[in-house]
Write a structure and sequence with these properties.
Largest interface: A-C, 80 and 64 residues
CATH architecture of the largest domain in chain A: 3-Layer(aba) Sandwich
Largest sheet of chain C: 2 strands, antiparallel
Mean pLDDT of chain C: 87
Helix content of chain C: over 70%
Chains: A alpha/beta, B alpha/beta, C mainly alpha
Largest sheet of chain A: 6 strands, parallel
Oligomer: heterotrimer
Order of helices and strands of chain A: HEEEEEEEEHHEHEHEHEHEHEHHH
Strand content of chain A: 15-25%
Low-confidence stretches of chain A: 25-33
Order of helices and strands of chain C: HHHEEHHHH
Shape of chain C: extended
Number of strands of chain A: 14
Distance between the termini of chain C: 12 Å
Shape of chain A: elongated
CATH topology of the largest domain in chain A: Rossmann fold
Strand order of the largest sheet of chain C: 1-2
Number of strands of chain C: 2
Structural class of chain C: mainly alpha
Strand content of chain C: under 5%
Strand order of the largest sheet of chain A: 11-10-9-12-13-14
Mean pLDDT of chain A: 87
Distance between the termini of chain A: 70 Å
Number of helices of chain A: 11
């Protein structure tokens, strides 16, 4: 290429470049002047909440971006001039969308791309239920400030959180399933897999009887609020019945007085059912202290002095678990643990002869009693687990499909499984 | 002798546990007397808490719940000191409290000591609300109305008159919350009854034994950081550039961990040699 | 009597159980208020229940002292310790310090309770070591996997371990974050379903053994 042609080509390039730059500058300048009042603004009481908040929604604009800002203004319902309202919050134009809020498709009233902001009490501005407020929106770009119309709404508390509808349906379905499986178990024979820890209960009580030593039974760190304590109390009934049949002494130290009182009743009934009411001792269940390590020290002392032949650790446990079980192991007792405190499982598994892991604790009463009601519950739980596993698998596939293809339909299913508040 | 007739491996497997206790005791004591000072790497879990506090603007409300008693003091006390030093350094409004009655006195001493060291004033820069009965009920109550859960602070001053609580009515007004828990009520309760209901950001701290149990909360974003045990405290001390008891304790922890590994290897060697002898 | 011992408790369980299950779905302040009031009432009832516990404790140890059973001296220590602490607590109005000066109650807290509790917790380290030595054996393939994972995590959680095997820190972090978290979640799912099923049974009176008294 000759030099003139090269120069000519460069000139053409420069002209094109200049035109492009000036075009971009003009379009930006035009964009700067083109902000207008936010469109389709809505203000209403926030649904499914406890009151004290209003929701503001509006459609996105072509000029939404980091350079433009939105202001939410609010004040007394009588105010009609938006400029007279208080600025509650201010944020960049490319933030605060409906999609950012944890809501599901069945509660969403606008597209996910719309803007959404909640107006709550802030410094110098209080939002009270039942009071009407004037709310406006302002779009700001440089020196320009454009207001929306002023809308009036009043917040109020709601009686149902519709976002949690999926949770309610799942809970009710699972409850229904459990009752169905209970009635099914009453009519059919159901296979129950062996739980070695529970097979060993008889062995442990038998050994204690042979050696003429007591059985130590702990119900855990929690009170009867916790299902694991209830499960522990239920198993105590079965263990106490066998201890009564074998005429073996039972020691049940407690950390909680109400649990102690309930366990006294359960033990008494077990002795009655075994036909040995005269052997029942009121002080077989006794209270020590609610304090974690004081209780541990006391129980360790009982283990070392009375040397029980069988130790049962059922219910919830914390750092005291190893202190209890290791002392028990040093006295040579057979140890059976059952806990849903997953963080303590490694210690129980290491130091006890048998450990009921997690839900096996809840299954224990079914296994020991072989009652259809209990076995049916187990069947219900197993079906529930299968459903959860399937939901996880399907959810992974759909979420992946949604992410890869950008399709919205997988969200319809995924929302059903989300934890929404 | 009860060990007569036993092979060497059998004897070693049934070794008196007091010998093991002595070994662990020495492994703890000697590094404390003669520290080495090995470098400590920061984990993303601890950095999560640090970074969030670092990102808070001055004057933000930081709630620290000291949910442990003296039993867990060796692990959680250094965590609390490091967190308080960081929060005071950032000039945050620090609200402290406890859900464990047996930890009240200790928590008061801890907060007062760090505040004094950092030149902060009670009521203006920080407050210790003390203990209120109810465990998780206190959290729910604070979520609705902080002043009804704590009508007065630990010193008996009405909370409504405390300048530090200006504009703070409930947990909804808290910028960041950390629960240092040794059990229940602790991190999980603060998540279930606090963050989940009243929507504030939170992190956690716990004993080393409990830490693996809280990882599911961390991975699902239910808490944004976790300080686990003495190691976590040492990492935090390193991050704020003020080394304390946790960093000093890391050498001892290193030695005991290695001692336990050595014990486990030994017991397996004896176990396999015994199995071989028995065919 | 059967009504008071059986039907009434079951009715109360049904009504309150359904009410508090529904409370979770109701965001109205009245529902939150109900929850707070109920939890406060539970605390009050729990406080009175402590009388039950303390009575049981005193009775148990009084019998030991009266009969001079083996170790009755410990029971005496319990009486002295408990009554002494209550007396000192009342005397100092439950305050551990007054204007920076430690009270007698504070002295008991700082110089008795703190070191005693610390000692109990510290024993844990010794027991972990002895339990590991006694039980951590590669008896099966699964146990061997556990053993290797435990050694890696123990190495990776201390500076010396990371210094000796630099990769151990990252590997232990991966074990804790991925393997440990997923297994715990699996256990949690099972536990939660079990707890929900048990709650349903209790609310609807299918499970009643916790009331004692067996079947009517």
């Amino acid at each position: 290429m000759n030099p003139q042609a090269l120069i000519g080509q460069r000139i053409v390039c420069m002209v094109v470049w200049t035109l492009l730059v000036s075009g971009w500058l003009c379009s930006s300048a035009l964009a700067q002047t083109s902000i207008s009042a936010p469109q389709d603004m809505r203000v209403f009481d926030t649904p499914s909440d406890g009151g004290g908040s209003l929701t503001v929604q509006w459609a996105t604009s072509s000029w939404d971006g980091p350079d433009t800002r939105y202001q939410i203004l609010a004040g007394d319902a009588a105010v009609t001039d938006p400029a007279a309202l208080t600025i509650i919050t201010e944020f960049p134009g490319n933030s605060k969308y409906v999609k950012d809020a944890k809501t599901a498709w069945w509660t969403r009233n606008v597209d996910k791309t719309w803007h959404q902001v909640l107006v709550r009490s802030a410094k110098g501005f209080e939002v009270k239920d039942g009071t009407s407020y004037a709310v406006a929106l302002a779009a700001v770009q440089g020196d320009q400030r454009v207001f929306s119309q002023v809308l009036v709404a009043s917040p109020s508390p709601n009686w149902f959180n519709w976002n949690q509808l999926n949770n309610l349906i799942i809970a009710l379905s699972f409850g229904g399933l459990v009752f169905y499986t209970i009635s099914y178990a009453k009519r059919h024979e159901i296979f129950l897999r062996r739980i070695p820890g529970l097979d060993a209960v008889d062995e442990a009580i038998g050994r204690a009887t042979e050696l003429g030593k007591p059985i130590l039974y702990l119900t855990g760190a929690h009170d009867l609020h916790d299902p694991s304590t209830i499960a522990a109390a239920v198993i105590l009934g079965k263990v106490a019945k066998r201890a009564a049949l074998y005429e073996t002494e039972l020691l049940v130290p407690h950390r909680e007085p109400i649990t102690m009182a309930v366990c006294q009743e359960i033990t008494k009934q077990a002795y009655l059912e075994a036909g040995k009411p005269d052997l029942f001792k009121e002080d077989a269940n006794f209270f020590i202290t609610a304090d974690q390590f004081s209780y541990t020290a006391a129980v360790d002392g009982i283990m070392l002095r009375k040397k029980p032949a069988a130790n049962f650790f059922m219910g919830a446990y914390f750092a005291e678990s190893l202190l209890l079980t290791e002392t028990g192991a040093s006295t040579g007792a057979i140890q059976i643990a059952g806990t849903d405190s997953d963080h303590q499982l490694p210690f129980f598994v290491t130091t006890c002869d048998y450990t009921l892991i997690g839900e096996e604790l809840y299954a224990a009463s079914a296994y020991l009693s072989k009652e259809p009601v209990q076995i049916g519950t187990l069947l219900g739980q197993d079906i529930g687990k299968a459903v959860v596993l399937s939901a996880i698998a399907i959810g992974i596939v759909l979420a992946t499909v949604g992410a890869v293809t950008g399709a919205q339909w997988p969200q319809l299913f995924l929302d059903l499984l989300r934890d929404l508040k | 002798m009860w060990m007569a007739g036993m092979t060497f491996s059998e004897k070693m497997l049934k070794i008196d546990r007091r010998i093991i206790f002595l070994m662990i005791g020495l492994c703890t004591l000697l590094p404390l007397l003669y520290p080495v000072g090995l470098p400590i790497k920061t984990s993303s879990e601890v950095r999560g808490v640090y970074d969030h506090i670092e990102s808070l603007p001055e004057g933000s409300v930081f709630l620290l719940s000291i949910d442990f008693d003296p039993a867990s003091k060796p692990e959680l006390y250094p965590q609390a000191i490091a967190l308080l030093r960081h929060a005071f350094k950032k000039n945050l409004r620090v609200i402290t409290m406890t859900l464990w009655v047996s930890g009240t006195g200790m928590a008061d001493q801890l907060v007062t000591q760090v505040a004094k060291e950092m030149g902060k004033e009670n009521g203006t820069d920080y407050t210790f609300l003390g203990w209120s009965p109810g465990g998780q009920a206190v959290i729910i109550n604070m979520g609705q109305d902080l002043y009804s859960a704590y009508p007065s602070d630990y010193r008996g001053k009405p909370t409504k008159e405390l300048p530090i609580l200006e504009g703070v009515r409930s947990l909804k007004d808290v910028g960041y919350m950390v629960s240092l828990g040794a059990g229940r009520p602790g991190v999980e309760e603060w998540y279930v009854f606090g963050k989940d209901k009243y929507k504030f950001e939170m992190g956690g701290g716990c004993t080393g034994v409990m830490a693996p149990g809280l990882y599911p909360l961390l991975r699902s974003g239910q808490i944004n950081g976790l300080i686990g045990g003495l190691r976590g405290a040492a990492e935090y001390e390193n991050l704020i550039g003020k080394k304390g008891k946790a960093v000093a304790g890391m050498d001892a922890q290193s030695a005991t961990h290695l001692a336990i590994i050595a014990l486990v290897i030994m017991c397996n060697l004896f176990y396999f040699s015994l199995r071989q002898q028995r065919g | 009597m059967i009504f008071l011992r059986r039907q009434l408790p079951l009715l109360i369980t049904l009504v309150t159980g359904l009410l508090f299950a529904a409370q979770y779905y109701v965001p109205h302040p009245a529902s939150e208020q109900m929850l707070t009031s109920a939890t406060k009432w539970l605390q009050i009832v729990g406080g009175f229940a402590l009388i039950l516990g303390v009575t049981s404790l005193f009775h148990q140890h009084a019998v030991k002292i009266r009969r001079q059973e083996a170790g009755w001296g410990y029971s005496l220590v319990l009486y002295v310790g408990m009554l002494g602490t209550i007396a000192v607590g009342l005397w100092t109005n439950g305050k551990e310090s007054v204007e920076g000066t430690m009270t007698a109650f504070g002295w008991i807290y700082n110089y008795m309770m703190v070191p005693l509790q610390g000692t109990m917790f510290a024993i844990l380290a010794f027991f972990i070591a002895s339990a590991a030595y006694r039980s951590f054996r590669a008896k099966s393939r699964e146990a061997a996997v556990l053993l290797v994972a435990a050694v890696i995590v123990m190495m990776g959680r201390v500076p010396l371990g990371e210094y000796l095997i630099p990769l151990s820190g990252d590997v232990s972090s991966w074990i804790l974050n991925v393997l440990n978290s997923s297994v715990r979640r699996a256990i949690l799912i099972g536990v939660s379903l079990g707890a929900v099923a048990l709650s349903f049974k209790i609310i609807f009176g299918v499970e009643r053994s916790y009331l004692g008294g067996g079947k009517e």
